Amino acid sequence: MNLVFNLESTPQISNQTQKLQLTFTTPIPEMGHLGGGSENDLTINAKRQVPLWLAFAIVYSEYADFNIPTPFSSKVRNALRAEPRSVRLSNLVGAGGLWYGFGKVIMEILADEQGKEMSDMLTTAFKGRLVEVIDQAQHFAALGPAGGGGPTGDSAQAFREGLDATERELFILAQESARRMKKWYEESEKGKR
């Protein structure tokens, strides 16, 4: 079998280290080494962990199936439904903490109905956490350089440590925006005196 796949249709993700466990539905001769296997051939029901970019191609070509990864399990979904701010997204996907990016790729691999459910979960989580991200960024910007220091041991610090990489970027942008707004306000008040 020849694997024909247009790489331009592969979704873009920033974290290329993510892997996905596949269960092969088609035997593939001389590909047993894939994902660290030691066999000569991949057989039906063989399980392999492969990089996400390759998993997308294999699943899209209908050579394998996969289960939704642990970072998007029903346990995580329930925790997000109960209190989105309590979930440490950075811990769910490892280095880089790109939970939303990983979820977007999984969403694109899934069938329409499951993909929509994943999209809804990602959107709801983002919306449920965004206000807190912006609020904390503005709070720490108001404290100035001295207030942005080390760990405080409170729930706010735990929340910041659990941010996804996308949320961390928004936090930094909101913090910088609040600092610039404060500076502008202070400079405009000096001119009125």
Automatic annotation (TrEMBL):
Family: Belongs to the GINS3/PSF3 family.
Residue ranges of the TM segments: none
Places the protein is found: Nucleus
InterPro entries reported for this sequence: GINS_A (IPR021151), GINS_bundle-like_dom_sf (IPR036224), GINS_Psf3 (IPR010492), GINS_Psf3_sf (IPR038437)
Name of the encoding gene: PSF3
Keyword annotations from UniProtKB, A to Z: DNA replication, Nucleus
Organism, as annotated: Marasmius crinis-equi
Protein task: The GINS complex plays an essential role in the initiation of DNA replication.
Protein name: DNA replication complex GINS protein PSF3
Assembly: Component of the GINS complex.
